Structure formats: structure tokens, C-alpha cells
Amino acid sequence: MLSPGSLISQEWYTSTTGKGVLSSLLTRNLLKRKPFGILDKPVLPANVTADEVKYKILMVGKSGVGKTSTIAKLSGNEIPTSHSETPGIHITSTQWPGLVRQMNKVIMFHLQFWDVGDGAMKKYEHIKSTWENQADCAIFLFSFVDRGSFEEISQHITRMTKPRNNFAKLVIGAKFDQHAHSEVTQRDIRDFEHTWKIPVLKIRNVPDTETKNDMHEISQILTTISEHLWHRDILMAGRSVPVNDGKISSC
Ligand SMILES: Nc1nc2c(ncn2[C@@H]2O[C@H](COP(=O)(O)OP(=O)(O)O)[C@@H](O)[C@H]2O)c(=O)[nH]1
Ligand SMILES: [Mg+2]
User: What percentage of the chain reaches a pLDDT higher than 70?
Assistant: First the structure.
């Protein structure tokens, strides 16, 4: 499994340059993301240039686990407080910068999240494989307070693992703020990661009014997503990946 930070720095955001680039994406109090239109670009600090890469990410998981809320949190939008079935297919784009270690270069990741409601999933069953083929990444979501949703993940992965589907795969467990009532243990998570070699991330889709530490949680998740997409591109290009100690390992 790719270890976090081996390709894209997890700490860069706290550096002067990292903070400068992030502030071009955030509102003045640095707590919210600025909205960008399709043609808008963030104004980066004068000494920074960033190449852009675009990726399509499919959100997969049982109704009510927190797909829509996770996308809202990761893209800096208002998190819905009640559950309503996502009508049709909802696409949300967000931008996230990362410092790619090997090149010492800032890359702006344009992440396009595809949120497909249950109704649309059934209605468009016949074109499901088309959008699955076009995805660069699939994020499988479960809820920590719904064991069934965790058990379903293995079935989704098996169903979607076909030779032509070479998307990056990640799992996110939502409702981690309710871990006191969790139906999924740390042991379950370890066993899952061991079996599937897919990392399980955790998210709390609740406004963080006390510690204002949202940005830290969001930056860790978005950096990990970007890192896996970058890793997939390297694998697809048949190049080498640096391992943790800076040596190069062939893949
Ligand atoms: N406490 C808590 N509630 C959450 C979290 N994520 C989602 N929810 C709630 O769970 C319900 C379903 O979430 P939603 O994102 O609509 O699920 P979806 O059907 O998978 O898109 C909503 O009432 C959300 O407010 C979370 O991390 N913590
Ligand atoms: Mg939804």
C-alpha cells in the first residue's frame, strides 16, 4: 500500500509557500474555500507556478452513508444536515494543490466528484459501466455506524475490479464523529487494509466549530486522494515510484 506522503508532501501546507498557495483558494479568514467558476483560476503567489491535472472520481456506497456530505466537506461547501436522496448525477469540482516530491513542483489537482444517487444508479444501469470505465478513481464510502455499509464495500470492489478498470481505489469511513457508537472496529479496518491493500480514511462531516481543525482533516484526505491519482498515473505510464526512504523502486 502506498504510504502517505511518499509522493506528495503532507506537511507542505504548513510551509510559507504552501500557506501562500492555499490562501489563494481560501476566503480571507482562511476557513472556507472560495467558489471558482469553470473558467476561473486561483491567483497564485508570484513566485509559484503550478501545472494542472484533472481527474474524475466516482463516489460509491449505500444510500445514507454520507457521500453527498463528504463531497460537500471536501469541496468546502455547506454540509447538508438532513438526508435526501441525491437526484440524478451530481458533479462537484474542487481544486487542491500538492507538492510532488520527486519533481519538487506544485501541481494543482482538479478533482471532479461524481455523486450518483441510488435512483440514478438503477435508472442508468445500462450506462453504468461506461462511467465506471471513464473514472480515474473510485472512492468507496461506508458509515462507521452502519456495519452493513462496511461489509458491502468488498462486494462493490469485487464487482468493479475488471481488467479494463484501472482506477485508483480508496475507502472513506464517514460519521467518524460518532465513533462511540461505531459498528466497525479498528481491527476490521486493519484486516480490510491488509486484504485489499486499499487505505481506509476517516471523515467527520460535521462543522468543526471548536478546534477549527477542519482544514487539517480536509488537507490530509485531499492530499491522499491526489497522491493515489498521481501514483496511478505513474503506474500507467510504466515509470518508477520512489519508496519512502527516497530510493527508487520499479513497479
Ligand atoms: N454525524 C454525522 N452525520 C453525517 C456524516 N456524514 C453524513 N451525515 C448525515 O447522514 C445523512 C446522510 O448523508 P448523505 O451525505 O446525504 O448520504 P448519501 O446518501 O450517501 O449521499 C445526512 O443526514 C447527513 O447529515 C458524518 O460524518 N457525521
Ligand atoms: Mg447523496
Answer: 91
